[in-house]
Amino acid sequence: MENLTVVDHPLLKRDLTLLRREETPHGQFRKTVSDAAAILAYEAMRDIELEETTIETPLEQTTGYEIAEEVMVVPIMRAGLGMVDGFVRYVPEARVGHLGMQRDEETYRPVDYYSNIPSTVERAHVFVVDPMLATGGSASFALDHLKEEGGQEFTFACLVAAPEGVRKLREEHPDVPVVTAVLDRELDDNAFIRPGLGDAGDRIFGTRS
After folding, report:
1. How many angstroms separate the CA atoms of 62 and 53, rounded?
2. pTM higher than 0.70, yes or no?
3. I need a surface site. Which of 10, 75, 142, 207 has the fewest CB within 10 A?
4. From CA 14, how far away is CA 191, in angstroms rounded?
5. How far is CA 17 from the centre of its chain?
């Protein structure tokens, strides 16, 4: 699919297997989400801008590199919170915004309940993170909101994507690349990804047994 990167890495495939497995306990699930997010971040940040700098090694002067643009990570709460540590692992100076959204179980449309976005969003490369890209409603809604806040450069990162969600983002936000660990088969009648991994938020936080 256009504008979609599926990260092919042995460790990511192993982590995804742990996340899919029904009997994986929530503590291990939470840690694995963070570890898998770090691998996604490595790929998602491949084209981040750098600038040269002069440094001194113990032996001589040489050229090094620093990140030249502001990095911002915005999780779609609550499940997206599980991916934040993985993304800031490599860029600890990144700012973190928050967007709280939940799915209306009758319409399957997103409903927002919280927003706190750093004022530097206009000049940042914003990585919007959520474990699941299902219908694409929450992702598209979040990107609409962030663009209204002044954001201009985005990447959307998720662990599992459905073709329906990828198509929606391609139609409504063609400027936003999507990075994922896997593109699953389809959405079912309840708009859950198949085969998927269940409710990522409940499994991260252990809110359902």
Report:
1. 9
2. yes
3. 10
4. 26
5. 18
